[in-house]
Design a protein that fits this description.
about 300 residues; about 0% helix
């Protein structure tokens, strides 16, 4: 049976009992004053309006691992098979490029950089879980470049406030890496370990960065979120009453609410009796606000 590690009483509170199979990719839209996220395995896009409490979910044409907001409206989406534009109102999808069509992989975590590009990584879905996946950059002119290879499960893609540091984790390796990132070219260099999770209960999943440059990381199978200072030191641990914590976003009118997605994937009936809120959307007010989400320029 799944159990939470011995940390503090849960601090994040359930706000939407959505029971996602694999909630992920959560982002706050300042334009809509709403929160968007995915249930990857259900192929659904969810929207939550905190002012009214209303939730809306839309069925997608295929699974999607992540998305970003377009500067002109609509979304850039990392669908399982490739990049595409998507209009949440009409449901119209415009394909851009297939990614790794000859491999048993799908696109997973992604994020827009602060210069208007979209980065997303893949993951191996075969039983062997081999390091055959990669990270790709989609430029505003819709060209695609592979930045990193030899990955099993790409996660934690996020950027420092100045856009010059890229964070990334290959989840099974339990290490969050940092790269120098050139905002002018979208090229990376000087890979280094930002933080190893060998001394922690979970594995690194989705992340976001706040206005102080601290990285908030969701811990899969850890039942918690960890805030790391820019030097990699642990600043704060937030418990979540669900083992599989998947992604985080800072949102709300003042960008000071930490929203948290979770998953039911891999949990038994006995596990769900212990953690009935698993798969829900959680929230917690924090002292340091986030940053406006970067948008895709294409």
């Amino acid at each position: 049976m799944v159990r939470l590690p011995g940390n503090a009483e849960p601090e994040a509170e359930l706000i939407v009992d959505c029971r996602n199979v694999l909630g992920e990719g959560v982002l706050w839209s300042e334009r809509d004053r709403s929160l968007y996220w995915l249930d990857i395995e259900a192929a659904e896009l969810w929207r939550y309006d905190p002012a009214s409490g209303e939730t809306v979910r839309r069925t997608l044409a295929e699974r999607a691992g992540s998305f970003g907001f377009r500067a002109g409206g609509g979304l850039i989406v990392a669908f399982a098979s490739g990049f595409a534009f998507y209009d949440p109102d009409s449901g119209e999808r415009t394909r851009i490029a297939e990614i790794e069509p000859d491999l048993p992989t799908r696109l997973n975590d992604g994020r827009c950089d602060r210069a208007g590009r979209f980065l997303a990584g893949t993951m191996d879905e075969s039983p062997e879980k081999r390091p055959i996946a990669g990270i790709y950059r989609l430029d505003a002119d819709l060209t695609v470049e592979r930045l990193i290879g030899g990955i099993t499960t790409a996660n934690s893609l996020s950027f420092s406030p100045d856009g010059r540091t890229l964070y990334f984790a290959d989840t099974p390796k339990r290490v969050i890496h940092a790269y120098d990132y050139d905002p002018e070219t979208g090229r990376i260099s000087r890979r280094r370990v930002f933080r190893s999770l060998d001394d922690q209960p979970g594995k690194p999943d989705g992340s976001t960065v706040d206005a102080e440059g601290c990285l908030w990381n969701a811990q899969w199978q850890g039942g918690r979120i960890v805030r790391y200072r820019p030097d990699g030191a642990i600043d704060r641990v937030v418990a979540v009453p669900a083992p599989n914590v998947t992604c985080v976003a800072l949102g709300g009118p003042d960008l000071d609410i930490l929203y948290v997605t979770t998953a039911r994937q891999g949990m038994s009936a006995a596990d769900l009796e212990v953690f009935p809120q698993a798969g829900g959307l959680f929230a917690l007010r924090v002292d340091v606000p986030g940053l406006p989400e970067a948008t895709f320029g294409g």
